[in-house]
Amino acid sequence: MKRLSVLLLIAVLALAVTPACKKSGGSTEATLAVTITPANGSTNLNLLGPDFPLKVEITSTMPPSGVKIVISAQKDGSSDPAFFTSTNNSTAGVNNYTITNTPSSVTCVVTVTVTSISNSGNKWTGTYRYSKK
Fold first, then answer.
1. What is the domain partition of the chain in residue ranges?
2. pLDDT single digits (tens) 79-132
3. Please, which residues have CB within 8 angstroms of residue 1's CB and are 6 or more apart in sequence?
4. DSSP the chain
5. Measured distance CA(17)–CA(33) in Å, rounded
6. pTM here?
7. 108 near 89, Cβ under 8 Å?
8. What does the pLDDT read at residue 17?
9. Distances in Å between the alpha carbon of 113 and those of 7, 36, 99, 133?
């Protein structure tokens, strides 16, 4: 009987402590959804230049503190430094950029990363390829 009382007491204590161990303050922000133009995953070859527009549209609910948008363009498969980079914070749903300094006759890859400022784990990354005639 004493053993049963001890087990019952342990069970009651475990149930009493469990709610206090719950994680609180979980993020209620929507998972980032982004549309880019040119389209994510697309390949656009032999385009006329010299400049190339890029539109980054946040299609999910905007995080309360906004997002950080990082853009990098470099020769595909190269370890050379990026020939174009841009980083900015935004609370706008639509963000327009112009890729400049594109080398001719090589395929380039553009990487777009959008990260919530208030929750760095809420991140979207996309890429597309293009080449300048």
1. 34-132
2. 999 999 999 999 999 999 999 999 999 999 999 999 999 999 999 999 999 999
3. none
4. -HHHHHHHHHHHHHHHHHHHHS--S---SPPP-EEEESPTT-EEEEE--S-EEEEEEE-SPPPTT-EEEEEEEEETT--SPPSEEEEEEE--SEEEEEE--PPBTSEEEEEEEEEESS-TT-EEEEEEEEEE-
5. 38
6. 0.79
7. no
8. 47
9. 53, 11, 15, 26
CA dist., res. 69 & res. 4, Å (int) = 60
Whether cis (ω within 30° of 0) applies to the bond prior to 64 is no
At the top level of CATH, the class of 34-132 is mainly beta
Closest CA to 111 of 95, 97, 128, 96: 128
Cβ pair 128, 110 in contact under 8 A: yes
> Which residue, 127, 101, 106, is CA-closest to 46?
106
Relative to beta strand 107-116, strand 123-132 is: antiparallel
- Tokens 């950080």 map to which residue? 68
CA distance 35 to 59: 7
The tokens describing 99, both together, are 């890729």
